[in-house]
Amino acid sequence: MEGDIVQMGAYIGAGLACMGMGGSAIGVGNVAGNFLAGALRNPSAAAGQTATLFIGIAFAEALGIFSFLVALLLMFAV
Amino acid sequence: MATEAQGSQEGLVFHPMDQFIISPLFGDGPVGLLTVTNATLWMALAVAAVFALLVLGTSRREMVPGRAQSVAELTYDFIHKMVEDVAGKDALSFFPYIMTLFLFIVFANFLGLLPAAFTPTSHIAVTGVLAMMVFLTVTIVGFLRHGTGFLGLFWVTAAPLPLRPVLAIIEIISYFVRPVSHSVRLAGNMMAGHAVIKVFAAFAPMIILSTGIGLLVTPLSILAIAAVYALEVLVAFIQAYVFTILTCVYLKDALHPHH
User: Fold this and answer.
1) Buried b (16+ CB within 10 A) or exposed e, A17-30
2) Nearest Cα residue to B171 out of B87, B258, B255
3) Does the beta-carbon distance from A51 to B2 stay under 8 Å?
4) Successive 10-residue mean pLDDT values, chain B, 259 residues
5) CA of B76 to nearest chain A CA: how many angstroms apart?
6) Which SS3 state, helix, strand or coil, does residue B76 take?
7) Cβ-based burial of B234 (10 A; exposed 0-12, middle 13-18, buried ≥19)
8) Which chain B residues touch A if contact means CB-CB below 8 Å?
9) Which residue among A44, B41, B129, B176 is least crowded, i.e. fewest CB within 10 A of its CB?
10) Do A58 and B242 touch (CB under 8 A)?
């Protein structure tokens, strides 16, 4: 097997970068779960807060997308 | 994204990133500034779909709306309410811009889900321009409305005095990261979903090659394609919604910069 240590490092780095997506998944679940917990206690106030819910999810998700982007850059651009 | 020739030699029939290649529609020359490409075509189709929904759908203006007119009115009300709730009443002068953004993104996302279609919003070049326009609009509007008072956005008066310079640095960094996260979120979501569908699609024809337990690969991957596709329909709408609502949030910061 031909060894290209730089390419190998890039692929390992891409795999490691994907761990960030796990953290983002925990974050998104946390936001949605807490929203649901609050919404079940006071359902009448829940409808007005869906915009806040999506903003929170978007912020948490952005960081996972960043790590996905780093993985893609390592795979295809470096 | 780069096309990789090695994919065809090692199992995958095509590369999952091949769908994002921009190629000229007529002939195959280099792609220049004015070349008509597949990206141009699908963006034009998105604009045509918006036109069809809003202009043709509401052209009859019946008292009891038909299907197209109902959808057009519902969309209008939905965005109007979002701008009013999130950004405030005085942001309604920006409503046409935000409505345009939402409709273009949502139609580009949905049309990109058609088989063999191209998704313009999966390219950072497209979403980057959209996010940069929002960023410039918000910054210019902030300075026009409040002058140097707009800098109060970075000077958090609610915090104790020694903490304020530190917070100012953090606020400034987060302000300039906004267009990056704004554009990468949309492009990354669209690209990731489409790439996952194509990865499963590469496993789908395995039934020709495999025997025994390997025969299960094809039905499982077809099921997975259906599931991911359904998720993508949801994501296509939610990402357009998130892009629009973040525009409203940024606009609110520009119109009311004091914490």
Assistant:
1) beebbeebeebbee
2) B258
3) no
4) 43 73 82 86 94 88 84 93 90 94 95 90 93 95 90 86 91 91 90 88 81 83 92 91 93 83
5) 17
6) helix
7) exposed
8) 1-2, 4, 17, 82, 85-86, 181, 184-185, 188-189, 191-192, 238, 241-242, 245-246, 249
9) A44
10) yes
- pTM of this structure: 0.85
Residue B32 and residue B118: Cα distance in Å, rounded? Answer: 18
Are B241 and A54 an interchain contact pair (Cβ–Cβ within 8 Å)?
yes
* Contact (CB<8Å) B185/A65: yes
For residue B54, how many other CB atoms are within 10 A of its CB? 18
CA nearest B97: which of B244, B252, B249? B244
- Contact by Cβ (8 Å): B84, B248: no
Q: How far apart are CA B73 and CA B67, in angstroms?
A: 10
Q: How far apart are CA B40 and CA B24, in angstroms?
A: 9
Helices (H), chain B: 38-51, 67-87, 95-112, 124-146, 164-203, 217-255
* pLDDT tens digits, one per residue of B127-177: 999 999 999 999 999 999 998 888 888 888 888 889 999 999 999 999 998
The ipTM of this complex is 0.75
Element (H, E) at A25: helix A19-41
Whether residue A25 contacts residue B213, with contact meaning beta carbons closer than 8 Å, is answered with no
Q: Which of A1, A31, A68 to mutate to test the interface with B (most CBs of B within 10 A)?
A: A68
Locate the domains of chain A by residue range.
Answer: 20-77
A70 and B CB contact within 8 Å = no
